[in-house]
Structures are given as structure tokens and as C-alpha cells.
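Format notes (please read before filing issues)

Several people have asked whether sequences and C-alpha cells are stored in separate files. They are not. Every record keeps both together, in the order shown below: the sequence lines, then the C-alpha cell lines. Line labels are part of the format and must not be stripped during preprocessing.
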Amino acid sequence: MRGAPLALILMAALMLQSPAVHAIPMTFDATLTQANEVPPTGSTATGFASVVLDPTAQTIQVNVTFSGLTSLTTAAHIHCCLPSPLDPGVNVGVATTMPAFPGFPIVAMEME
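Then the structure lines:
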């Protein structure tokens, strides 16, 4: 597992399903596993991400927890936009700042 981008593809797809005309923040959750990578990595690391999108304030809040990393993180971003959220095996473009969100410790590693 390499940082946060794992299952965020699904969250980005779900965000597209909800029109931005909502005046209230929308929360999207995802379980992060290697199986959601394209191609799958075989990593035993796991995580959970919660993204709060507020279209009125034009803000996004990303909270990610993870465990089992065996190397430094290399990226933390959200991918967009799947033709279908159920379309497996598709690599899609990055929709947020590359290689990571501002302030994200890109060389962070879980300490045991």
C-alpha cells in the first residue's frame, strides 16, 4: 500500500454521483486495500479514508488512517473519474494536488 491513493478511486467516483448543488457537506468513506490498486500490489497494509466535500464552501477534508506499511509513503491524492464505480481494473487520472495534499508528510512511515 502506498500512502492514501488506494481506494480513493472509488470515493472520487462516488463524489461524481452526487450533484454539487447540495448545500450541505457530503461524506464519503472507503476501506483501503491493495486489491483496489491497479494492478493489485500484494501489500498487507490496510487503511480507512473519510472525505468530506463541501461544495458550498468549496473545501475538502481528508482523514486517513493506515497500518502495516513497510516502506515510506510516496503519494497521497484522489483519483477521478471512473466511467462506473463498479468498473474494476481501470486506472484513472489524479484529481487532486500531486504528488500529495499540501502538508501531507510524503515520507511518513508507520512506526511500530
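For reference, the curators noted about this record: Strands lie at 26-32, 46-54, 59-67. The first strand starts at residue 26 and ends at 32.
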